[in-house]
Amino acid sequence: MAVAIVPVEREVSRGRSRPWYRRPTLTIGCSILFVIAFLAIAAPLISPYDPTAQQLTAVLQGPSTAHLLGTDEYGRDVWTRLLYAGRVDLAVGVLAVVTPFIFGTAVGLVAGYYGKALDVIVNGIIDIVQAFPFYVLVIALVFVLGAGIQGVFLAVAAVGWVSYARIIRGGVLVAKREEYILAARAAGFSSARIMFRHLLPNVITQAIIFAMSDIVVVIVGVVTLGYLGLGVPPPTPDWGSMIFDGQTFITTNWLLPTIPGIAVVITGLGLSLVGDGLADAARPE
Amino acid sequence: MLEIRSLSVHIRSRRGVVHAVDDVSLTLLEGEALGIAGESGSGKTTLLRAVLGLLPRSAHVVHGEIIFEGVDLLAVSAKQAREVRGKRIGMVFQDPMTALNPVMPVGDQVSEGPRYRLGQSADESRRTAMKLLTEIGIPDPARRYRAYAHQLSGGMRQRIDIAIALSCRPHLLLCDEPTTALDVTIQDQILRLLKRLSAESGLGMLYVTHDLAVIAQTCPTVAVMYAGQVVERGPVAEVFSRPRHPYTRGLLASVPDVHRIGSALEPIQGTPPDLHSPPSGCRFHPRCPLAQVDCLDGDFPLLSTADDRATACIHSERMATTPLLSTGL
Predict the structure, then answer these.
(1) In Å, what is the CA distance from B220 to each residue of A83, A274, B16, B36, B199?
(2) Strands B89-92 and B172-176, bridge-based pairing
(3) How many CB atoms lie within 10 A of CB A77?
(4) Do A178 and B98 lie within an 8 Å CB cutoff?
(5) How far apart are CA A25 and CA A276, in angstroms?
(6) C-beta atoms of B104 and A198 within 8 A
(7) Residue ranges covered by each domain of chain B
(8) Is the N or C terminus of chain B more exposed, i.e. has fewer CB atoms within 10 Å?
């Protein structure tokens, strides 16, 4: 029996994405981050000085053509140190977000999908970690793990993953009741395939948006730990220790602690704009 | 090809145990299409999900067997049951909007089964999917392949859903109200498509719906479910023209008919029973115009008659002479 099926349906086109110039938040944020990342990566090429080379004949100078942003109390070039500090802070910040992002997402996905005892345990750990204020827990962990880049990274990662696990778990709990997940199971796909190919793409957006705001928190956290003397050991520059060292001279050379502060603010602003822009882009129109 | 033997499914709820499917037996022959009719909550969907081995966590099979191609699906391991799903039993869902993954191009969803279940190469599975899309009546399949679910109309989405269900060439297709969410004109196209597939490829079909007209159009045989039980079964034309169970007659009388404009619909009195504590005896007796004292307790199994029909009603011979309204027993 041959029945001719006459196609009468029309394709309905919706959700066409706006061009980049119609998304000013995302564009400006990305531009800021691009410039900062470029300056940090290209630091050895841009700056003529060594970030740790002391020049005791030229301490605490103001901005000049030789030293764009002046020199600190050891005669080190502030512009050079600012760029090198950015390398350290951004690298630690990004790493301390990417690692917990991956780990937390995997944990949230598995706990949300399988549920039962596993979910109860994971949820318990999340609640315990989130019951502490962020800095209290991170500082305590840095004391235990030892100050320095490694300690800071491990402490921030150990606290940070729970946020991702919570976001993903919540998304999975909702999404796994959707009919397309039942359909995937009805098609006989493996649990791993259903989790990573069907659930994950549907819940990952929220975690990515959160990661953008999380990087701000983490970079400020790394800077704060540096300021408290728990971060990168001297003489390696870092924005936090630069602010701390500079504040002694705030009455005479106010630029010294202010410049790294501004660097933190601009970086944070860029990341926030990207986060907002992504959230906006992900929102269905 | 499929034989369900006295299947009972219980669902745990806060208020106790729901007897969602109670002692249901059904047989589906090779290439046959069987319609299962019933109201919401009559256990139709639970029955389908039991066949697929995908009952919700709160539900479990109390007893019974589901023999599919010689194997009891309830007795095999989870791994073997998964092997059957998709490859030998496909399922079409009610709402084509929610049954498709919103973030995966529809073509990839069609080719996913052949690629990962049948072990085809990327190119091969793509060709399989394209062929299916063409077969299923998707115009310009090459372009639609990359489309997302929200870019397609309801009818198109349901076609894609059917293509996915068929992508691993199953022998049995479970349809859970696949046209309920569609316009009648699109519904007609989908039904013709399913009928054609069933006729061309010897595909067995279990078609669940509350819409009697849809069953009349699609399936040669019908089973009517009420409160978790099958109350009547037989060839569709005969069951609908001369029902032998008062519930079936009530269902037919409550269907709007354009040829009877002006005449009032006759709803079935009362409401479906609470399956936490189903009525004793015949479950339909509180709403039944034929009910007598002997309906109040005992078992009411489906009794077959020589003409390939079966009814659970013990008073079916009085059907023709009694009015529809309930006696209020």
Answers:
(1) 79, 60, 38, 11, 12
(2) parallel
(3) 25
(4) yes
(5) 7
(6) yes
(7) 220-329
(8) C
Residue A9's nearest CA partner among B197, B128, B136 is B136
CB atoms closer than 10 angstroms to residue A282: 12
CATH topology of domain A22-42+66-282: MetI-like fold (1.10.3720)
Closest CA to A193 of A204, A185, A202: A185
What is the mean pLDDT of the segment spanning B7-36? 90
Tokens of A118: 């596993």
Q: Does B189 touch chain A (CB under 8 A)?
A: yes
The Cα of A114 is separated from the nearest Cα of chain B by a number of Å equal to: 11
Tell me if chain A has a CB within 8 Å of the CB of B137.
yes
Three-class secondary structure of residue A213 per DSSP:
helix
CA B50 – CA B46 distance, rounded (Å): 6
Query: Can you tell me the ipTM of this complex?
Result: 0.85
Residues 6 or more apart from A16 whose CB is under 8 A from it? Answer: none
CA A233 → CA A47, A148, A152, A227, distances in Å? 22, 6, 11, 11
**Residue A22 vs residue A163, higher pLDDT:** A163
What's the CA dihedral at B222, B166, B51, A172 to 10 degrees?
-130
- What pTM did the predictor assign? 0.79
- pLDDT above 70 for B296: yes
Helical (H) or strand (E) element with B164: helix B154-166
Q: Which of B52, B93, B101 to mutate to test the interface with A (most CBs of A within 10 A)?
A: B101
Going by DSSP bridges, is the β-strand pair B172-176/B204-209 parallel, antiparallel, or unpaired? parallel
For B82-108, the pLDDT digits (tens) are: 999 989 999 998 888 889 999 899 999
DSSP string, B117-128: TS---HHHHHHH
Kindly report which listed range (A64-68, A242-246, B48-52) carries the lowest average pLDDT score: A64-68
Region for residue B227 given its phi and psi (left: phi exceeds 0; alpha: psi -120 to 50; beta: otherwise): left
Contacts of A179 in chain B (CB under 8 A): 93-95, 98-99
Give yes or no for a contact between A20 and A67, defined as CB atoms under 8 angstroms apart: no
For chain A, what's the residue count? 285
Rounded Cα distance between B223 and B235, Å, is 9
Q: Phi and psi at residue B25, in whole multiples of 5°?
A: -125, 130
Contact by Cβ (8 Å): B163, B133: yes
In terms of DSSP bridges, do strands B204-209 and B33-37 run parallel, antiparallel, or are they unpaired?
parallel
SS3 B175: strand
Which residue, among A162, A80, A90, has the nearest Cα to A124 in the 3D structure? A162
